[in-house]
């Protein structure tokens, strides 16, 4: 078990190592759509690459989700394990729409699994970004 300080230091080391191992600019928040972002996530049990649609206005959130969902078959051709959830509840209780893939059995606290997480991140985020860029005009047309 790690102290809070050790945990924070290890997380910082993980993200720094990822950035140095794969130095490229990811889209993440730069989608040009407010509250529509790509995210990397890792904890002590899993790693995740996601597209989060977090608009507070449910009508807009649902409209963007439906646009992505209309492309579901294309997304699943590239990433068959992708999960689509229109009403995903975050730990803080906020409802978002989320499209994601996760890899279980890895841990940000186990340096031996870092390479596996990094490769998972890169492979899946690249695919999601390519799909976004390919259909960006369609997705943005709300």
SSE layout and pairing:
Layout: H1 4-21, E1 36-42, E2 46-53, H2 58-70, H3 72-78, E3 83-89, E4 95-104, H4 114-140
Antiparallel strand pairs: 1-2, 2-4, 3-4
Structural account:
It is built from four helices and four strands; from the N terminus they run H-E-E-H-H-E-E-H. The chain has helices at residues 4-21, 58-70, 72-78, 114-140, and strands at 36-42, 46-53, 83-89, 95-104. With 142 residues, it is an alpha+beta fold. The mean pLDDT is 95. The protein has one domain.
As for the number of domains, it is 1
Number of helices: 4
Order of helices and strands: HEEHHEEH
How many beta-strand segments? 4
Globular, elongated, flat, extended or rod-shaped: what is the shape? Answer: globular
The average pLDDT score comes to 95
Q: Oligomeric state of the chains?
A: single chain
Give the amount of beta strand, in percent. 15-25%
Protein structure class: alpha+beta
Widest sheet: strand order? 1-2-4-3
- Indicate the radius of gyration in whole angstroms: 16 Å
Instruction: Report how far the terminal alpha carbons are from each other.
Output: 47 Å
Unreliable spans = none
Major sheet details: 4 strands, antiparallel
- Residues in helix, %: 40-55%
């Amino acid at each position: 078990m790690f102290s809070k300080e050790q945990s924070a230091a290890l997380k910082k080391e993980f993200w720094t190592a990822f950035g140095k191992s794969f130095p490229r600019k990811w889209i993440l928040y730069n989608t040009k759509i407010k509250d529509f972002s790509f995210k990397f996530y890792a904890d002590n049990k899993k790693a995740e690459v996601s597209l989060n649609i977090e608009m507070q206005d449910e009508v807009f959130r649902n409209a963007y989700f439906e646009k992505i969902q209309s492309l579901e078959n294309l997304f699943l051709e590239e990433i068959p394990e992708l999960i689509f959830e229109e009403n995903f509840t975050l730990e803080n209780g906020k409802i978002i729409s989320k499209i994601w893939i996760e890899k279980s059995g890895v841990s940000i606290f186990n340096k031996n699994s870092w390479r596996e997480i990094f490769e998972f991140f890169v492979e899946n985020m690249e695919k999601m970004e390519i799909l976004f860029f390919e259909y960006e005009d369609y997705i943005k047309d709300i």
